[in-house]
Amino acid sequence: MSSNNTQTKWAQFIPLVTVFFFWGFVAASNDILIPVFKKAFSLSQGQSQLVSVAFYVAYTVGSLLYLGISYISKFDIITKLGYKNALALGLFISASGTLLFYPAAELHSFPLMLSGLFIVGLGFSLQQTVCNPLAIALGPVKTGSQRLTLAGGINNLGTTIGPLIVSFAIFGSVASANSEASIESVKIPYLILGAAFIIVAILLKFSSLPNHPAVEENVVKDTTVQKKSALNYPQLIMGMVAIFLYVGVEVSTVSNLPAYLENDLGFLTKDIAPYVSLYWASLMIGRWTGAVEAFTDNINKQVILKFIAPYLAFGVFLLVNAIAQHDLAPFYVYAAIILVLIFADIISKGNPARMLFLFSTLGIVALLIGMFTTGMVSVYAFTSVGLFCSTLWPCIFALAIRGLGKQTNQGSNFLIMMIMGGGIVSWIQGMVADATTIHLSYVIGVLCFGYLAFYAWRVKGVLKKQGVYFDS
User: Fold this and answer.
1) To the nearest whole number, what is the mean pLDDT of the chain?
2) 359 vs 132: CA distance, rounded Å
């Protein structure tokens, strides 16, 4: 980063986060499609998770495709196109995927539905590769992870709204007697989403976003030798595994939640949306809390905002569910659980390694409580996993690309490739659920959080050898 880059460039950052909103909207909407497709196509729990597999594996295929094009053409595709142009291209690719929902619904074709989600994911892969380092580049390095957290908070505004809108499109109003899935009703919302992709692509193309930000200058001065490949950096290799398992536990926890609510607690499919929305709102709550450092350097103001921001986000969740005419009574107790997140965030002091370790540990505790209790206690425990996943992405991303210098773009691409964990881990948990119970299948998430805690501990020593001290 250039030395004069001391403040967040809000005029450029704000248009960028609209893309983060789309990622969240689609990802959370998938959790409503899973139980719908499961009934409409008579799928097992493992087969229903192919929705997650198709969407998230597309990230890996997309990353490999873009790397292959770069290798064959002998230039980095993002550097050649420019960040803004690559971002617009990614949005157009995703828009083309939404078009498949119409013939898929008409033909009642599950494979065609999966193909549409796969193409949407291909576009998201390119967008993610561009947006994450770009968010870090639009301001000082020291608040890079906080800007990613803030962008993630906007992402989770999409995840909070997405399930409610898609559920309404499929089932109608909450008062409707319609509790059966309608594949045909999926067509219109996804066509509208495709149109939105195109509009935002055009707007971003003509925005003030830089086409060639100085992300390649983000290199640690103490690093003695610049390596030829990003894969030569141990923080990146371990970070790739961490991203795989982090996205895995984040997605699998909620993608298997509808089946738990239906099979174990007797919920109707049409009544699941508020709880899926609560899970994703939990990520928004945590990310709004973790982003306050991007707004002020004043410690006292930060502490105050860390109490205001999460409840403001929780208020957004309550508001959108009130508009959707859902009963809010079951959710008020969740306000107390949010206090655990606030105190954990304050204790972490913005240190990404410490935050990753602490929040991973809390994630393990939440899953164990969910597994060894029943009823609404277990539901609150499973949804609270969203609180503790909330800031893990920017923590892992910031730790994994720290010190990569000119290999930052390549490293970012490798990390985005690992988003496929969202599909693979969800599928594995679905298979475990088929073999045992959905309740017990959450042990998969416990194992994922276990590695994340290990990475948080190990990467500190790796970066210390390269002259990176996050405590200083």
Assistant:
1) 84
2) 21
Cβ contacts of 177-182, under 8 Å, gap ≥ 24? 178/270, 179/268, 179/269, 179/270, 180/39, 181/35, 181/36, 181/37, 181/39, 181/40, 181/269
Question: Would you say 238 and 458 are in contact if contact means Cβ atoms under 8 Å apart?
Answer: yes
Query: How many whole angstroms separate alpha carbon 197 and alpha carbon 202?
Result: 9
Query: Are 151 and 20 spatial neighbours (Cβ–Cβ below 8 Å)?
Result: yes
DSSP letter (8 states) at residue 390: T
**No. of helices (H) and no. of strands (E), the chain:** 21, 0
Q: How far apart are CA 138 and CA 150, in angstroms?
A: 13
% of the chain exceeding 90 in pLDDT: 36
This prediction has a pTM of 0.79
**Tell me: the pLDDT tens digits for 103-132?**
988 888 999 999 999 999 999 888 887 887
Helix (H) / strand (E) element for 48: namely helix 45-48
Reported as a single tens digit per residue, the pLDDT across 247-270 is 999 999 999 999 999 988 988 877
DSSP letter for 265, please: T
Distances (CA, A) of 463 to 148, 167, 218, 232, 351: 20, 45, 15, 13, 13
